[in-house]
Design goal:
The chain is 42% helix and 15% strand. By secondary structure, the protein is an alpha+beta fold. Helix 8 links the parallel strand 14 and strand 15.
Length: 643
């Protein structure tokens, strides 16, 4: 795991090493073990290294043996040992034991198609000195970030936006269309970001720059099947196949020259991941978790039960409301994105515990819910479609009470309120975005907080129309369940879970996360499964639970799913709240940033006065406003040296 940055001069000039050093210096936490800068003709690469594989021989930027190809690489190629043998048999030689050199030789052998041979998580750039071509690639799931921009004389890229903004020629402005998308979907639609003229390379895509031509190409997408074309629905056979793939995905993700730990949340996914590690590793596993004083969020009894059952050496960090408020500015500095929940803040504290415990690598359970039907949003869509088949039914909407069993406020809602919020019309049923529209409509209401100038500039732009137009041509032929999974895995997973809550919070303390459930073979199996094996009636992750039998405690298999959450709006409004909260939410600061209407923000914040609990929308709103104000103060209204 590392930080990368680079420059390609498209005007015939030569990159400045000082610029590259400044870019990579913005990312010290991504690579505290070593750094390097190299100028190779028109290209310049920089690298900050977190040493995990081949600790002595993996320094970067690295060249191929013949020095034709140069690379700067962030991530891991988990099947590098098998690929290395394959490439040696084809006549390639190696000077190191690193997976970085495997990428170089694979590119030499297979060209741009090399990425289809990789099983891993990566963002890298290769410079071909003979063809004078720059090649960038990002892993299939979007685990590792990669951003780029173009100036009048250069193409610039980096692991994080702040490295690009270390270059004074890169503008420091919000992209208001990107912000409109974020205030609809929680994420910007790639290649947009929250910042003007700064793009993200989408997951499963590669990019080439040759001469003045920039070309982006998709090399992989989740292979969802048409309605009725799913694989054999034999639950026993499929559960055995799934467990076999997960075992191998876990095995290759344990390849490391440093100790590996695991996150243990108290849910099925992390418990199974931890159990599989225990079957493979020779030493007692270290596991790590979060606890909360507030019982509404705390899962420590299940974490301790899982740890005892699996025999791990367990450590935890307790997170309070005050902790969240205290670290929130650092969280935003690393996330580089507006947030609608505070959940990344405890993850920031958890990765600090991992690093302080002497670990650089952890395996976690992300990706299971997207691939195997774990989210309540899938259950909600199933109930609403069932209701939509008989809109006059009195009892069908009562099934909505089966949603969110861990949300006390939701469970106390009168049935009439739930029917109103989750209402279904005939027009809704034909909407390709049916599964997510209620979530997105609720978030989009927060755009009423935008200032008049922002609303005028956005005008009649319709984010959902743009997303609809970008859907794959075969989207409508997929099952309704598959459509919902696609929207979740395509946008929310890489744009929020793996980024703001994943890579950014882990790498803030120089920790690499690895995700067996995001092994492309596991994801592709999930895409082929019939929906009933993912959600049997309303029993989520049905097949995965079958695969877990005997490996995790029965109590964890039987417990209702509890989504990871943290205290939100109220963290920022008690008498001990940090000074920055009042300062950034003041009418003067809101007016200066220009994104929100100062009167609308004052009305919103008044709802939390005296420790009051806000509504779900109000909590989203206050976190979104505060995070955006922090983003403006850290990135838009200051130079990087002022942070």
């Amino acid at each position: 795991m590392c930080g990368i940055a680079g420059q390609l001069r498209i005007d015939g000039g030569e990159p400045e090493a000082s610029k590259l050093r400044k870019m990579i210096a913005a990312l010290p936490y991504r690579g505290p073990d070593a750094s390097g800068v190299r100028v190779i003709g028109a290209a310049g690469f920089a690298h900050a290294r977190l040493s995990i594989i081949d600790l002595q021989g993996g320094a970067q930027p690295m060249s191929s043996v013949d020095r034709r190809f140069w690379i700067t690489f962030n991530g891991e190629i988990f099947n590098y040992l098998e690929l290395r043998e394959e490439l040696i048999n084809k006549g390639h030689s190696f000077a190191t034991r690193s997976d970085t050199e495997v990428i170089l030789n694979a590119y030499s052998e297979y060209g741009e198609d090399c990425v289809n041979h990789f099983n891993g998580q990566w963002a890298f750039a290769i410079w071909d000195t003979k063809e004078r071509k720059l090649f960038l690639s990002r892993d299939r799931a979007g685990v590792r970030p990669l951003f780029y921009t173009q100036t009048k004389d250069s193409f610039l890229f980096a692991s994080e936006i702040k490295a690009l903004m270390a270059c004074p020629e890169v503008p420091r402005e919000f992209d208001l269309v990107g912000m409109d998308q974020i205030f609809t979907f929680w994420v910007a639609l790639p290649p947009r970001t929250a910042f003007k003229n700064i793009s993200q390379l989408p997951p499963g895509h590669s990019l080439t720059v040759q001469g003045d031509r920039v070309q982006v190409k998709q090399y992989w997408s989740v292979p969802y099947v048409e309605q009725g074309d799913s694989c054999n629905g034999n639950a026993r056979a499929r559960s055995e196949e799934l467990l076999h793939l997960l075992f191998d995905a876990t095995r290759i993700r344990l390849r490391s020259d440093v100790p590996v730990g695991a996150y243990l949340s108290g849910g099925i996914d992390s418990a199974l991941t931890t159990a599989l590690i225990g079957k493979i590793a020779n030493e007692r596993l270290r596991s790590f978790s979060l606890t909360f004083a507030d019982a509404e969020f705390d899962e420590s009894p299940y974490q301790l039960e899982a740890s005892a059952f699996l025999g791990t050496q367990h450590s935890s960090v307790s997170c309070s409301q005050a902790d969240i408020a205290r670290v929130f500015p650092e969280v935003i500095h690393h996330a580089e994105h507006p947030l609608f929940r505070t959940a990344p803040a405890p993850m920031f504290l958890l990765s600090r515990l991992v690093r302080e415990s002497g670990f650089k690598v952890v395996l976690t359970g992300e990706g299971a819910d997207e691939a195997f039907g774990g989210y309540d949003i899938f259950k909600e869509a199933k109930i609403r479609r069932f209701w939509g088949q008989n809109l006059e039914s009195k009892w069908r909407p009562l099934l909505l009470k089966r949603l969110f069993p861990f949300l006390q406020d939701f469970q106390r809602q009168p049935a009439a309120n739930l029917r109103h919020f989750f209402r279904v019309t005939a027009e809704d049923l034909s909407n390709p975005l049916f599964s997510h529209m209620r979530r997105w409509e609720l978030t989009a209401r927060l755009k009423m907080l935008f200032s008049a100038d922002v609303q005028a500039e956005i005008g009649k732009y319709d984010a959902t129309a743009e997303l609809t137009e970008s859907l794959p041509s075969e989207f409508r032929s997929w099952s309704h369940f598959g459509q919902g999974e696609y929207l979740e895995a395509k946008y929310f997973l890489p744009g929020y879970l793996l980024s703001s809550q994943g890579d950014r919070m882990a790498m803030a303390h120089s920790v690499e996360g690895r995700y067996p459930f995001l092994d492309y073979r596991v994801v592709e199996l999930g895409a082929k499964l019939p929906a009933r094996l993912k959600m049997w009636v309303l029993n989520e992750k049905y097949l995965l639970k079958r695969a877990c039998g005997g490996l995790v405690p029965e109590s964890i298999l039987r417990r209702p799913k509890q989504s990871y959450r943290a205290p939100e709006g109220r963290c920022f409004f008690d008498e001990k709240a940090p000074d920055y909260v009042k300062e950034l939410l003041s009418p003067a600061a809101v007016e200066k940033a220009g994104v929100f209407d100062k009167r609308a923000v004052s009305i919103l914040t008044s709802k939390f006065a005296g420790g009051k609990e806000g509504s779900f929308k109000d909590n989203m709103g206050v976190v979104a406003v505060l995070s955006t104000q922090l983003l403006a103060s850290q990135f838009v209204n200051q130079t990087m040296g002022d942070n």
